[in-house]
Design goal:
Helix content is 48%, strand content 21%. The strands form 8 sheets. Strands 5-4-3-8-7-6 form a 6-stranded antiparallel beta sheet, sandwiched between helices. The longest helix is centred in the last third of the chain and has 66 residues, at 1021-1086. The radius of gyration is 61 Å and the shape is elongated. 31% of the residues are buried. Residues 1-19 and 1236-1241 have low confidence and may be disordered.
Length: 1289
């Protein structure tokens, strides 16, 4: 029997086996067929299972959609339409077809003008239009319309901000970007389409109706945009699946190669040797590759004995069958692994399906969450699970569902988990990822809950965040109470999926609750709106608030109107209606005095949850609330277009916690109430204004007929419906040339009494009540309702009103054509709040009343002018004669300078020309105590002069009284005057007038005129006789001065001669020996008479210095004498002022160095030569520099020369003691020195600056000083460039 050797080698060393070829072939073929059948069966089964799963998923989704649809059937119509559109678009799989049908459906269902969808390009980050309705949409698609992300369009801005943008009134919004293809757009909305936290595009909606797209309709379109985003992603996924199916075939070979590579790596196969007899060398002779899908997975080897063509053919067939068999075996193993994973996934999907079904069938949120907790425990094997939701303040989480592993353990539902000192929960909420906390009872990540965790036996805790729309709303905690339990990745993934279902359930419940709440609120707000529209007065408004049911358990409702100041800030609130335990109508509150009133003034609602604990409620407000029995209050500001309308106050008998829902209700109520109250106020204002205009018209008509002050005030008193009749006072104001403006009360009407003309006469305007307030605002009505509460009034004004018996006043300044006419004052003895009618009519009456008063005063002025004209014509003749007489007397008086002849002539002429009984002229003696009669008319007068008649100033007489009072004294009837001094020579004197003779402030005497007729002298005569007296005074003064001057001139000539002789002798007598002293001192200092000791040299230098100083003093005195006598001569020559300054600086340098002073000279450009007295200019400059050195102890001295307008300006600045302002006024006077008491060591006569001033002024210049005590001085003087005069000045 022939022995065949076969060897099979699989990726390793070959081993020999021996077996019949036929048996092997049959075995291989049979095995291959079995494997192929099995694989086909598994493939078919997997396909059917996948189809079944997909069908089940679709059915499950359909059931879920139907269940959710049943839950939201009661939502608003907009949400129902959005759901309907969402159901339509979810049935479409092709992206372009789905989007085109979606926009058409949305436009049709929501009755819109245009709808379009933009999708975000992942490469260019642009919004590309993918669907649009109508011809405009087709044209935009043809143009490949696209928009950038960001500002510039509402779609770009919505995509960038991930928030919807609503433009209710497109034509007035800066966000609106008009499109020529869509000219009828009036409102627009752009909603971002977000899928899995990423923006994939925007849904754009446009309407023809202004305001139809607003925030109220936003919620529906948010839901629609979310559904549309899901549909877009589903369509994209369908396209990707189709493309993937085409790629599967290409991947088959790659997967085969990769699969066998992984198999050989994971499960190495040892080489198999079949039937190799002992002693036979197992060296392969034939080698055949084993192929699978074109890839070699191993080799089949056969010994050399079988090397033949048939053997090779058979070997190749066996290798092929073997490859197929081995591939089927690998696929079978891979299929089993996949089947295990599919069954695991199937179990997870079944669990999720049960969870979704159970949650959908649950009645409320708590039941749904408890089911989720139970299923989560089942899925993870962890029995202790809890769900906690963030509270409204977001400072803690409240447990809403709990499952405990311990029997009879208390439920944790309702327990509050604080966020503070709880890092683990904080991390889960902020980072939105699972947090595992091992050793939870000691881990610092759960510090705030250690005690609770110990009680519950927790070892490790897993915290999963509940995330809804990218916002963490709570956590799910899985408490591991046994050691060694850890979650696999699959368990953790499944737990996250279940938690996602919990978040979705919470969101659905919230949306449902919000929808229900919104519907109920809308119904009650509609009822409130209907009730408000039917309200006839403020009481109906309050009743509408109570009956609406929007606020529960309210015990009091108050409605107040608000009065604002000029800046629009609320100041006063007045209660107009109330119900229950509230404020009483008519009560007024000054809002700035109340803390919460100030907060209300900012336009925000003020909510007080407990009046006993709120710091803003104290004092008066606390007492008010206690009286009302209020423990919680809400103050709602009512505003229309930023204007204040009123306030609504709601109160509750118990403390109350205000929720965000309360805030929304309060805002909606405030809006409706503000509009209603504003409309009622406008209607009331129209009625009031009509009544006010009627009153105003009636009063104006009565004023137009008034011709007297009595009729004018009667029209005001009887024409207005006064709440309390005031007292009226009409005051005429008369501006005078001196700037004053006295006021005179011309008519007064006391309250409830007849009018009177007081006849008080003019009084200063400062005496008029509150003149400081109304003078500055002549176009405003000044109203003071309470003198003690009005902050504009100071204490003086209040005392002024109290003296007048006023507590309230209204003052109307009356000006016409820019001229003051008067002022109308209305007053009340008590505080008085003026009504709106009173204020309106009074403010509107100002111009008509001013016109009436101006006409009345013009008429009175004309009458007075006519009367004055007649009187003036009658008096003119007399005045003319009297003035001629005054002129004659003045001429006669001026003709002589002898006092006695002058006064005698004046007396005679006055008596004759004025037809008087007698005339006297008295002069004041030198002792200024008696009046001596110096002249009298006629022989009687001369006789009385010879008598030596005198009248002491203190004596009771008309003449002495005129001298004392320095004013005219007129006695119409001497028989009734106690001041009349009778004389036997003048027995018939019946009237007398004494006129003082005054020059400036000096009283010279008295002119006394007498008449034998009672009443002969009138007040108008005072002015004529004063003129006569002034002329006589001047003539008398001149005559007196002339005599005095003659005597003084003689004396001055003698004094001048003596002074000149004295100065000449002094110059000669002093200078001669002085020059000798200086000369001999110089000789001795030169050593001509022998050597000198150091002490002798110092003494001689002192002698020489004193001699020079004395010589300078003599020179100054002589200069002063020449200046006073006007004999100073200036020698003009042209010289350079700069050279003089330089020479003087060299001379002054040693003196400055001795005191350690810095000496500087600054000469500006452009200094030209001047024509002046060189010696005198040098003298002036040296005098100032010398003074600066003498009066400066430290610092510096700066000399400056610069061009002036017409010459040269010299300036010397030092840092010395300075000169006070008082000394600056007299520093240039003779013998005046600065601060001589403190500078005793500095010698001087005080003549230097006075001489310098005279020398500068002789040149036509000027000299002045600027100084500050302790800071130094600057002396400046100017010298003209050319001489003012030539020769002697």
């Amino acid at each position: 029997m022939m022995t065949s050797k076969f060897a099979a080698t699989l990726l390793g060393p070959s081993q020999r086996i021996a077996d019949p070829v036929l048996w092997i072939a049959v075995l291989l073929i049979g095995g291959a067929l079995v494997v192929i059948g099995y694989l086909l069966y598994r493939s078919h089964r997997r396909t059917m299972e996948a189809r079944a799963l997909a069908h089940a998923a679709r059915e499950e989704l359909e059931q879920t959609r139907l269940a959710l649809q049943g839950q939201v059937e009661e939502r608003a119509q907009a949400l129902a339409l959005a759901a309907a559109v969402g159901r339509q678009i979810t049935r479409i799989q092709s992206l372009d077809t789905m989007l085109a049908d979606a926009v058409s459906l949305i436009r049709e269902r929501f009755n819109l003008y245009h709808v379009q969808v933009y999708l975000l390009s992942p490469t260019t980050q642009e919004l590309i239009l993918h669907a649009g309705t109508g011809a405009a949409g087709a044209e935009l698609l043809r143009r490949n319309h696209r928009l950038p992300i960001g500002p510039g369009s509402i779609n770009g801005a919505a995509a960038a901000g991930r928030e919807p943008i609503v433009v209710p009134f497109a034509r007035t919004s800066p966000l609106f970007l008009p499109n020529p293809l869509l000219p009828e757009t009036q409102s627009e909305m752009a909603v971002p389409m977000i899928f899995e936290e990423g923006v994939i595009g925007t849904l754009n909606l446009q309407s023809r109706v202004p305001g139809s797209l607003d925030t109220d309709s936003l919620e529906s379109f948010l839901v629609l945009a979310a559904q549309l985003a899901t549909a877009v992603e589903n369509a994209r996924l369908f396209t990707e699946i189709t493309q993937t199916r085409e790629q599967l075939t290409r991947r088959t070979r790659e997967l085969t190669r990769e699969g066998w590579g992984r198999l050989m790596t994971d499960q190495p196969i040892e080489p198999l040797v079949i039937d190799t007899p002992a002693g036979i060398d197992a060296v392969a002779q034939l080698r055949q590759p084993i192929p699978v899908h074109g890839e070699t997975i191993g080799y089949l080897e056969m010994g050399p004995a079988a090397d033949s063509p048939r053997a090779r053919e058979l070997m190749a067939a066996v290798a092929g069958q073997l490859g197929s068999h081995l591939e089927n075996l690998r696929l079978t193993q891979q299929a089993e692994v996949a089947l295990h994973e599919a069954r695991q996934r199937e179990d997870e999907l079944a669990l999720l399906n049960r969870i979704v079904t159970a949650v959908a069938a649950s009645a409320d949120l708590s039941t749904s969450l408890q089911l989720i907790v139970d299923y989560l425990a089942e899925a993870t094997g962890i029995d202790q699970v809890g769900v906690a939701i963030l509270n409204e303040e977001k400072d803690g989480l409240t447990v809403v569902a709990d499952r405990s592993a311990q029997l009879n353990a208390d439920s944790a539902v309702g327990f509050v988990i604080p966020r503070a000192n709880n890092p683990a929960t904080e991390m889960a909420l902020i980072e939105r990822r699972p947090i595992v906390v091992p050793n939870a009872t000691e881990n610092p990540l759960t510090a705030s809950a250690h005690e609770v965790l110990r009680q519950r036996g927790v070892k490790t805790i897993l915290i999963l965040p509940l995330v809804v729309e990218n916002e963490a709303i709570g956590t799910v905690g899985l408490d591991v109470v046994e050691e060694g339990i850890e979650l696999t990745d699959d368990q953790l993934r499944l737990a996250e999926t279940i938690v996602y279902q919990a978040a979705a359930a919470i969101q659905r419940a919230r949306l449902f609750d919000q929808t229900e709440e919104a519907r109920h609120d809308a119904e009650r707000l509609f009822a409130l709106s209907a009730a408000l529209n039917a309200a006839r007065d403020v009481t109906d408004i309050v009743e509408a608030i109570v009956s609406s049911g929007l606020v529960e358990d309210v015990t009091g409702v108050s409605l107040a109107v608000v009065e604002s100041d000029a800046d629009g800030r609320p100041r006063w609130s007045t209660i107009v209606a109330g119900t229950g335990r509230s404020h009483n109508p008519g009560e007024r509150f000054h809002l700035p005095d109340i803390d919460i009133g100030e907060a209300t003034g900012q336009g925000k609602a003020v909510l007080v949850e407990d009046v006993t604990r709120d710091e803003r409620v104290d004092g008066m407000l606390r007492a008010l609330y206690d009286g009302m029995g209020a423990r919680a209050t809400a103050l709602l500001p009512l505003r229309v277009r930023d204007s204040w309308v009123g306030l609504v106050e709601l109160s509750w008998a118990e403390p109350r916690r205000f929720t965000p829902h309360d805030h929304r209700i309060f805002r909606a109520m405030a809006t409706q109430l503000a509009v209603t109250l504003s409309n009622q106020q406008l209607l009331e204002e129209v009625r009031d204004r009509s009544n006010q205009l009627e009153i105003l018209s009636r009063v104006e008509a009565e004023l137009s007929l008034a011709t007297t002050e009595s009729e004018i005030l009667t029209a005001l008193v009887g024409g207005l419906p006064w709440r309390e009749p005031p007292s009226l006072e009409l005051i005429y104001l008369s501006p005078l040339p001196d700037g004053t403006m006295p006021g005179e009360t011309v008519w007064r009407v006391p309250s409830g009494a007849a009018g009177i003309a007081p006849g008080e006469g003019p009084r200063p305007i400062s005496d008029l009540p509150l003149s400081a307030l109304w003078l500055d605002k002549p176009r405003e009505l000044l109203v003071v309702e309470s003198a003690w509460r009005d902050s504009r009034l100071d204490e003086g004004m209040r005392r002024q009103l109290e003296q007048a018996g006023w507590r309230a006043a209204a003052i109307m300044p009356l000006r016409r054509a820019g001229q003051w006419q008067g002022v109308l004052m209305l007053s009340w003895p008590d505080s008085h709040e003026m009504t709106a009618d009173e204020l309106f009519v009074l403010r509107r009456l100002r111009e008509p009343l001013a016109a009436t008063i101006a006409s009345r005063r013009a008429y009175l002025a004309q009458e007075a002018a006519l009367a004055r004209t007649e009187t003036a014509l009658a008096d003119q003749a007399r005045l003319s004669g009297e003035l001629r007489a005054v002129s004659d007397v003045s001429v006669a008086a001026a003709a002589t300078l002898d006092v006695d002849r002058l006064l005698a002539a004046a007396s005679d002429l006055t008596k004759e020309n004025f037809n008087l009984y007698h005339t006297h002229i008295y002069l004041l003696d030198d002792d200024r105590k008696t009046l001596a009669l110096r002249a009298g008319a006629g022989e009687v007068g001369r006789e009385m002069v010879r008598e030596g008649r005198i009248i002491p100033l203190g004596e009771r007489s008309i003449v002495a009284r005129a001298a004392r009072e320095r004013d005219v004294v007129l006695v119409s009837d001497t028989r009734r005057s106690t001041d009349f001094l009778p004389h036997l020579l003048l027995p018939d004197t019946r009237s007398e007038m004494a006129v003082p003779l005054i020059i400036g402030d000096r009283l010279l005497g008295v002119l006394d005129v007498q008449s034998n007729q009672s009443g002969y002298f009138r007040p108008e005569d005072r002015q004529v006789y004063k003129i006569l007296a002034s002329q006589l005074a001047v003539a008398t003064q001149n005559a007196l001065y002339f005599g005095e001057q003659l005597e003084m001139a003689e004396k001055l000539r003698e004094v001048d001669r003596l002074k000149t002789d004295f100065l000449a002798r002094m110059s000669h007598e002093l200078r001669t020996p002085l020059n000798s002293i200086i000369g001999f001192a110089d000789v001795l200092l030169l050593g001509l008479d022998g050597d000198l000791t150091e002490r002798m040299i110092e003494d001689l230098e002192l002698i020489r210095g004193g001699g020079y100083h004395l010589r300078d003093i003599i020179s100054d005195i002589l200069d002063m004498s020449k200046i006073e006598a006007g004999r100073l001569e200036l020698v003009y020559e042209e010289f350079d002022a700069r050279r003089i300054a330089s020479e003087l600086m060299a001379t002054a340098a040693p003196l400055a160095e001795q005191k350690g002073l810095a000496l500087r000279l600054e000469i500006s450009e452009g200094v030209e030569p001047i024509t002046a007295d060189r010696t005198r200019v040098r003298q002036v400059l040296w005098n100032i520099i010398g003074n600066a050195i003498k009066f400066t102890d430290h610092g510096s001295i700066d000399v400056a020369i610069c061009p002036d307008d017409d010459g040269v300006l010299f300036a010397v600045t030092d840092t010395g003691i300075g000169i006070s302002p008082a000394d600056q006024e007299r520093i240039f006077e003779y013998f005046s020195q600065v601060d001589a008491g403190r500078r005793e060591s500095i010698s001087g006569t005080g003549l230097g600056l006075s001489i310098s001033k005279s020398l500068v002024e002789y040149h036509g210049g000027r000299i002045w000083v600027e100084s500050e005590p302790g800071r130094g001085s600057t002396f400046r003087f100017t010298i003209p460039r050319q001489a003012v005069v030539n020769g002697v000045l």
